[in-house]
TrEMBL record:
The chain crosses the membrane at residues 20-42, 48-71, 91-110, 122-140, 147-167, 179-200, 212-238, 258-283, 290-307, 313-332. The lineage of its organism: Eukaryota, Viridiplantae, Streptophyta, Embryophyta, Tracheophyta. Its main location: membrane. Keywords: Membrane, Transmembrane, Transmembrane helix, Transport. This is Probable purine permease. It is a multi-pass membrane protein. Belongs to the purine permeases (TC 2.A.7.14) family. It comes from Hibiscus sabdariffa (roselle). It is found in: Membrane.
């Protein structure tokens, strides 16, 4: 009897395709999200809790792919007990806790973006990679190769190069206290999200059920639901719901564009969160952190194009270092994959021999 390798090959190919799709989705959210949020603030938006709410408020969109996955299971597995939601109570509780932390992180990040230019806040967020690497080592025993260490080092140095000349980025109408507070809030957001990414990976590993991509979407929905709940409480306390209609009327770009920006921002941020936890599902929290960091110079360039922020030599150096680090990581992954392939073939061959002897 011969053991077929085709199902395993198909699964690997599907997982790689899913990883590429999630990387693209993450890139869209990571680059466009900060730009949309800053656009809200620079043209008259002032509600930090509302801006935080927009980061996860579009969570009902996730119901659409969850429903499609349910109908697909119903057609392909008609004899099985099929449910719309696969999540068990303990996993729901874990996702809820992570969602509350995400809500707090949303506020810290939105406060920083309200006070800092896109380039400056992006630089600070790059420090998230160091936090992610540290927490991944502690929480999920992430194994580091020389290539992944090199990638973390290069990306961190790239962020440091960008930070060399940020003193001139402070808005003219902003006090030194507000600028420093915005800096600290953004750094706090970076540290907290650097903790959240490995925590999501730990949740996958400790789940007492099979983790499918449909279940990943459910986790994303529950996380965003509870994060939105945290931000909704903040909006109620801050009377944001009463102020939003007036803010829309007084918005510099007009009331219609105000609501267009708000809706687009909410949808784009869903791309970020779904892409981030999707990459964790397909690979690791470290790769998710590396992708977020490597996209930093892209956000910088987009800020230069759309907001006329200056593009100095250090931004070009940071872009080169980020690409170098990114390529270093993937080169290491390719080498590791090739090293593991002979062992996998030997294992399959031994299984085949056992079945043949039987």
């Amino acid at each position: 009897m011969e053991v077929s390798k085709e199902p395993e090959s198909n699964t690997t190919s599907m997982r790689k395709a899913l990883l590429i799709i999630n990387c693209i989705v993450l890139a869209i959210g990571n680059c466009a999200g900060p730009l949309m949020m800053r656009l809200y603030f620079i043209h008259g938006g002032k509600r930090v809790w509302f801006s935080s709410w927009l980061e996860t408020g579009a969570w009902p969109i996730i119901l659409l792919p969850i429903s499609l996955a349910y109908f697909h299971r119903s057609r392909t597995q008609p004899g099985s007990q099929n449910k719309l939601f696969l999540m068990k109570p303990h996993l729901f509780l874990a996702a809820a806790v992570i969602g509350i932390l995400t809500g707090l992180d949303d506020y810290l990040y939105a406060y920083g973006v309200a006070r800092l230019p896109v380039s400056t806040s992006a630089i600070i967020i790059a420090s998230q990679l160091a936090f992610t690497a540290g927490f991944a080592f502690v929480l999920v025993k992430q194994k580091f190769t020389s290539y992944s260490i090199n990638a973390v080092f290069l990306l961190t140095i790239g962020a440091g190069v960008l930070a060399m000349r940020t003193s001139g980025d402070r808005p003219a109408n902003e006090s030194n206290r507000e600028y420093v507070l915005g800096f600290l809030m953004t750094l706090g957001a970076s540290a907290l999200y650097g903790f959240i990414l490995p925590l999501v990976e730990l949740t996958y590993k400790k789940a007492k059920q099979e983790i499918s991509y449909a279940l990943v979407m459910e986790i994303q929905m529950v996380m965003c639901l509870f994060a939105t709940g945290v931000c909704t409480i903040g909006m109620l306390v801050n009377d944001d719901f009463k102020v939003i209609p007036r803010e829309a009327r007084e918005y510099k770009l007009g009331e219609t564009k105000y609501y267009v920006i708000v809706i687009c921002s909410a949808i784009i941020w869903q791309c970020f969160f779904l892409g981030a936890i999707g990459v964790i599902f397909c690979a690791s929290s470290l790769l998710s952190g590396i992708l977020i960091a490597v996209l930093l110079p892209v956000t910088e360039i987009l800020a230069v194009i759309f907001y006329n922020e200056s593009f100095r030599a250090e931004k070009g150096v940071a872009l080169a270092l980020s690409l170098w680090g990114f390529l270093s990581y993937f080169y290491g992954e390719i080498k590791e994959s090739k090293r593991n392939q002979p062992a996998l073939q030997t294992e399959v061959a031994s299984v085949s021999d056992r079945h043949t002897s039987v």
